[in-house]
Amino acid sequence: MRIILCGFGVVAQSFSELLESRTHDLYSKFGLRPRIVGVFDSKGCAYDETGLDLKKLNKIKKQSGTVRNYDKSIKQISGKEIIENFDADVLIETTASNYKDAEPGMSHIISAMKKKMHVISVNKGPLALAFPSLMELANYNQVMLRFSGTVGGGTPILDYAKNSLRGEKILSFQGILNGTTNYILTNMAEGMSFEDALNDAKSKGYVEADEALDLDGLDAAAKLVILANWIMGMKVTMPDIIKKGIRKVNTNDIKNAEKNGSAVKLIASCDKELTVSPVEIKINDPLCVNGTLNAISFTSEHSGTQTIIGRGAGGTETASSILRDLIDIRKEITKS
Amino acid sequence: MRIILCGFGVVAQSFSELLESRTHDLYSKFGLRPRIVGVFDSKGCAYDETGLDLKKLNKIKKQSGTVRNYDKSIKQISGKEIIENFDADVLIETTASNYKDAEPGMSHIISAMKKKMHVISVNKGPLALAFPSLMELANYNQVMLRFSGTVGGGTPILDYAKNSLRGEKILSFQGILNGTTNYILTNMAEGMSFEDALNDAKSKGYVEADEALDLDGLDAAAKLVILANWIMGMKVTMPDIIKKGIRKVNTNDIKNAEKNGSAVKLIASCDKELTVSPVEIKINDPLCVNGTLNAISFTSEHSGTQTIIGRGAGGTETASSILRDLIDIRKEITKS
């Protein structure tokens, strides 16, 4: 299975290392023999139609900061050119999410699907801004568009709701979908001011380069868009979310919540409306998790309310979700 | 799809009502047109090769306490005879669990599989005592043996671990798998004595007719056997579980746990050993749920620890898990 990898940051490197370490078991268990035929980061590219040497690739990136140095004899071309000129079965999009125009991820995904490649995206931008039309494009081109890693990192929230609850009707759901803001709010509940809690989260590397993505609820809203489309069959995009971040949560709000046996959490909710907003959640509600944990509660017609809790991010975790998507795609291809 | 239903207690009645209310949507969504051709309870049976009238069946049972009165003109025969004389695609086994000889469920399941029927069991007894050999018998007869409702009621714990985490290696897990003991321990944490808490649970109808099944950890151990076989690929049965119930947990244990920021929970654990035993769990661990809730935490190689929380029992919930199994079987049959 030939793969083009867009971006080579933490998640993509973890994925590449995962493939390296699991070559044998992926083949014996799933008949999966993945070859990365092209990869690019912000500084350059590497490609080889017979498959790049993953060990070398991972080492070069670590040493020099770019895949450009993998093979200095090849011509440097753009990501777009790689997608257009190389034959591959699957494109994996891992460049950074942005919610203005979702580029360059949006163009990568569209070009790939038009070339009949299946797509795995852990980049939330394109899905948040254009989920319904990207899904249509995938159907039109008869390719699969997968995105397990966009919500819950390695915790298979999307899969759980879609597959494990098949035959059930999900009526509503609410979740803590952004670990960074949850970490900040947890610290505030323990007495820190918003500023101190934010700085602490920054010092631990939890905050996005553009802090607005976390603090203003954009990241949580993007995940809500994906969940609403995929699980509830809605056709919505980012502007449909009513959104309020945590910047205005102060020590008084936290104390009031505590008096009510509750804690303030940034909750993404799909009920009558789609909202992201700080909400008081009872301490003994399974949803009320602390630190960087993510949690989501689905309320279904016959099975009551079920909650899944897990780490919402992390390179290895998200890489393992890409692998799950890849195994799925392989399975579907073999079927037809 | 022709179904024989063994037992017609709370779960089976909920299932029958679920089928009644979802006839149209099951056909349009899943191509599923279930017909119950035979059913029996402890007092008698009802059968009709063209499918029983579910509305009438549910009404008669409610009014008279047995399905025997569905059609007084038919000859009353034993459950065994129904299984042997009727053609059906699926047998659903819902009689009460027992961990001595697992009868009559064990005979129902074995007879059905020998007759090439697929089996859905929510009866834990046969699986706890003979999981490996029942699975072999199913393979030998090329039928499916499903049991989603045995662990977690309507919370699809088995499915989550097996499917949503595909491509992942689960290293260990631990769970609160018995809602009754969790309810008792929760009450004790709030100050009740063991006896008062037990009586309160009894008055709410939470305790099994044979209270040892809950209090001595048999129910939790049976679920652990099922999880260990299905998810970890172990070949174990009830005697392999090291088991200790909650009868000896006293107010001091509860208070000591509280001092450590913990609570005493009856934990079923699969790590180096398979154990069911009262254990101190940190209050802020997602696993530490209260009341009748069930919870299980899976620790996997790449995705960290993930916890699922939900109601572990209930007629409607368990009925919805039978329906999921039925949809699965229908899907698999159509494939081949």
TrEMBL record, chains A, B:
Its EC number is 1.1.1.3. InterPro entries: Glu/Leu/Phe/Val/Trp_DH_C, HDH_cat, HDH_short, NAD(P)-bd_dom_sf. It is an enzyme of class 1 (oxidoreductase). GO terms for molecular function: homoserine dehydrogenase activity. One of its GO terms (biological process) is threonine biosynthetic process. Residues 34-94 form the Glutamate/phenylalanine/leucine/valine/L-tryptophan dehydrogenase C-terminal domain. The active site is at 223 (proton donor). PANTHER family: HOMOSERINE DEHYDROGENASE. This is homoserine dehydrogenase.
